[in-house]
Specification:
Blueprint (H helix, E strand, L loop, with lengths): L1 H30 L8 H8 L6 H15 L14 H5 L11
Helix pairs in contact: 2-3
């Protein structure tokens, strides 16, 4: 009888801990911009509208947006608005995202 009470108690504590971890991960994802999906197509059209190589810009922007769920505002710069977008680099160490 004592073993079953201890087992039930440990199971309840484990479930509580798992629930807290899940809630923490979800709130962290929302804080980092992963909460809701954005429309990458229209965000990248706006980002690449002044690019001299629009097809390349759209392809790179679409890849970055799909990974980060974020595109910085305006047509250039503002990488500080989206940390994930700014952190993606090519093999040469250059920024991958336009």
């Amino acid at each position: 009888m004592a073993i079953s009470k201890a087992l039930i108690t440990s199971l309840l504590i484990s479930l509580l801990v798992l629930q807290l971890v899940k809630a923490d991960v979800e709130s962290s994802n929302k804080k980092n911009g992963y909460g809701s999906k954005i429309d990458c197509g229209s965000a990248c059209i706006a980002r690449c509208k002044l690019s001299s190589r629009p097809n390349l810009c759209h392809r790179a922007c679409g890849t970055c947006c799909a990974r980060c769920n974020c595109v910085p505002p305006s047509t250039y710069g503002n990488h500080d608005k989206c940390e994930c977008y700014a952190s993606l680099t090519t093999h040469d160490g250059r920024r991958k995202c336009p």
